Amino acid sequence: xxxxxxxxxxxxxxxxxxxxxxxxxxxxxxxxxxxxxxxxxxxxxxxxxxxxxxxxxxxxxxxxxxxxxxxxxxxxxxxxxxxxxxxxxxxxxxxxxxxxxxxxxxxxxxxxxxxxxxxxxxxxxxxxxxxxxxxxxxxxxxxxxxxxxxxxxxxxxxxxxxxxxxxxxxxxxxxxxxxxxxxxxxxxxxxxxxxxxxxxxxxxxxxxxxxxxxxxxxxxxxxxxxxxxxxxxxxxxxxxxxxxxxxxxxxxxxxxxxxxxxxxxxxxxxxxxxxxxxxxxxxxxxxxxxxxxxxxxxxxxxxxxxxxxxxxxxxxxxxxxxxxxxxxxxxxxxxxxxxxxxxxxxxxxxxxxxxxxx
Length: 358
Fold this sequence. Notes:
By secondary structure, the protein is α+β, with helices and mostly antiparallel strands. Helix content is about 45%, strand content about 15%.
């Protein structure tokens, strides 16, 4: 999630647990501590694939953060013994502030390595968009109130209610994602279409309209849109993943790492003389946040692997051109007109109508 959300979540948690002892300072301390795991962004890697896949790694590990919470609790209890703290209460506050950061990140689609150093697939529960005002604003309002009024009983109660609302909203997002996947699977079954894996992700600042992906056994995928208000089958299109191009990168460790990090939700395209690898999980149809140039054709027509770089095509900002965001928000409650999936694919992905799949 965004840094503001992480900060106000940490402020609300520490204010609730330690506000009686620390007063308004607990909000500031909690906000600062909650942003600590994201300091891994200052580590610069040699290529964007490494930058993407090592982010939310060791600094987001539940094991590492639990140990850090114990260390901080011991230090504070040792250095300020007369402040009325107890070691268990300090540990509880610091642990909640620290571990809720990666747990909240795991509710987005990006991927969070909660169990680092174990090499399990990063957790990506895709219940909320990476910026969601419905989750953030109640927490922000409660923290502002507590900052102005002090950590009174009413302020503490408001912080607690905001935290409970946020937890319920995350549960609502998980339920919405599962429902979207079930609707899409039912639509595929009704048409006699086979999918080996179905994955829904929220679109643009809400948890009501979902982009749904479904892999086919022969290496293609379906991409469609589903809302909880739908009364008809979701619109969808079939597209190729072009897995034959993946053979070019078969012996490349960074390609293997990217497959692991994304749970192999990748698409491969030859654009001019470049091999472009796309993470299908984030973006809108045809316009994805992470696209990497990973190989090129030389003068003899042979593929050569490259140090990955970001593909310099249409960027994620272009999703807002032409009223796309307006169409997405309208699609929450109205299926007509359906979203122009094919047109977006042509505009952003650079795939012609003939290449969209069968």
